Fold these 2 entries.
Entry 1:
Amino acid sequence: MDFDMNANSLLEKLKKYIDTEQRYKMKVVDQHIVIDIPEKESHYWSPQLQIEVEALTENSSKLKGLFGPKPQVWTLFMFIHFAVATAFVVFAIMAYSNWSLNKSYFFPLVMLIALPILWILLYFIGSVGKSTGEKQMNELKSFMKKVLREL
């Protein structure tokens, strides 16, 4: 969303409004604002809203927002996906090596079937988590719309 005001002025106005708001936990770092759900309502799948104030010209700026999971959730999911992918490659190499050496390759083959099933399961777990945090995401969206109307 574009504004006809300096990026620093826009950031200062947002900071003032944030300081008066008690419902959400908010952090300001440089040109970024992170809005979190209150701790008493927060759960593992709670979203957060990251807002960036970007200067377009000396007298205009742009506000960008991104809803997403908390960094801990994102990091854990990426670590698990990386571990599953690495295990898949390792078991593929083991299966090929055992096959070429005429040894039993039953276990690596079972793992080559199980790991994609685990990937699918991770996808559905992420989808359930996303839908669990949808209500809170809509609350954050409504809050941000209210803030933007008052600017």
Note: The helical segments are 7-20, 71-100, 106-132, 134-150.
Entry 2:
Amino acid sequence: MTYSVPRLPEEPDPDLRSKGSRRVSGWLLWEVFIRPRRGLHHVHAGSLHAPDGEIALQSARDVYTRRGEGVSLWVVPSSEITSSDAADAASLFDPTSEKPFRDATFYQVPDEVEWL
């Protein structure tokens, strides 16, 4: 395990990407995702500030899994997440209505298949 000394807000950070990051007191904003049980997907649990990924993971464990409710944690710098804009919803999601084959109701299930 390695530790680094947190930088003051005025000090340049060589690891900061040109895209920029939201920082508070020189610390990055991290998004926390938890997988509650094996076989389930990770779910966004919240956000926290930390100087690096290792500290963010330790803080996420302390803050979001106090009662042992998770089996896996992901921490991702908030600046690395790209999301769609609500104004673009029509162009992103409307074309799926033209593809009925993606919907399970499009197929007829044979009578021999009992478990569906």
Note: The first strand starts at residue 23 and ends at 24.
